[in-house]
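Practice problem: predict the structure.
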Amino acid sequence: MRLTSGLLAGLFSLAILTSYPSLSNSYIVIDKSDNSLTYYAHNIKVKTFSVATGRTDQDTPNGVYPVVMLVKNPWYLKKNIPGGTPENPLGVRWIGLEVPGTDGSIYGIHGTNEPDSIGKHASSGCVRMHNADVTWLYEHVHVGTIVEIVE
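Answer:
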């Protein structure tokens, strides 16, 4: 039997994702090449969203990272903007990722007050979603959910 490179990549990704301990039967794959985020439950694709990723390839780091922080209406501390306000660039939810050297407060999946940026390479490293989409995702992930970021 001959496996295609796409199937091999998929099996490799599944092996990576299943080798990390998780408190959840779900995982997320973010594909920077088409600015999409796909949520899987029990290895079944449930929903795909359009997202914004980093302006450059290096801004949003490739890799496999666990969710370590979940925050409703996050404050934007750089400019002291309260959570839940329309001018907050983090939108209505923060899903923090444990990228090496960080604690879940640097890289994350979050809402945005710039919905026109969705579908583009527009962020400084985080993954932006429409507020309604990140609210849905927030309700389906848990601390320990694995997120894989690929090209």
